[in-house]
Amino acid sequence: MICRNAKSALPDLLLDPGAASNAAVRAHVDSCAECRDELHSLEATFSLLDEWKAPEPSAYFDQKLAVLLREEQAKPPAGWFERMRSRLLFNTGRQFRPAFAGALALALLIGGGTIADFSVHSGNRHSVSATVTDLQVFDKNDQALQTMDQLLQDDGSTDDSAAQPGSSL
Ligand SMILES: [Zn+2]
After folding, report:
1. Does pTM surpass 0.70?
2. How far is the CA of 37 from the centre of ligand 1 (A)?
3. How far is the CA of 13 from the centre of ligand 1 (A)?
4. What is the CA(61)–ligand 1 centre distance, in A?
5. Cα-Cα-Cα-Cα dihedral of 137, 139, 143, 144, to 10°?
6. pLDDT tens across 44-69, in order?
7. Shortest CA distance to 34 belongs to which of 10, 54, 55?
8. What are the φ/ψ torsions at residue 52 (nearest 5 degrees)?
9. Which of 9, 40, 42, 166 could form a disulfide with 25 if both were Cys (CB 3.0 to 4.6 A apart)?
């Protein structure tokens, strides 16, 4: 066995010194001083880790966390992305419509088009910072999402009845 292979097998040897699969490593360590040193330093590291204990959280950790959670819940959702995420997370009453995925794809397409549009005119927009540009893009995406949202709600009832096979015939 060469040293490189032996060294990568040292942790196994340390965790299970008696295993038959570690016999080759054991034999190599017995004959190779360098790998023996490596094994000993690894052993020291492992015993240090055994002594290490995770620090106890402070006495007020739970209260502080509860306050932070309440503050976060009281805040209005930040942007269109946050709103969409909370929609996905908390709006479990209604089942997902495949159309929603289509709306997302469309919003992405619109977003991409907007970015391309901005890059075309970027020559005479020196004063507009990248952040402002991003915000404008997000705003347009938000409008697109709201439009799709209304479309989805509008055809929600017809969508359900059309889902039954043969009912529209
Ligand atoms: Zn060796």
Report:
1. no
2. 9
3. 14
4. 49
5. 20
6. 988 888 888 888 878 888 888 889 88
7. 10
8. -65, 135
9. 9
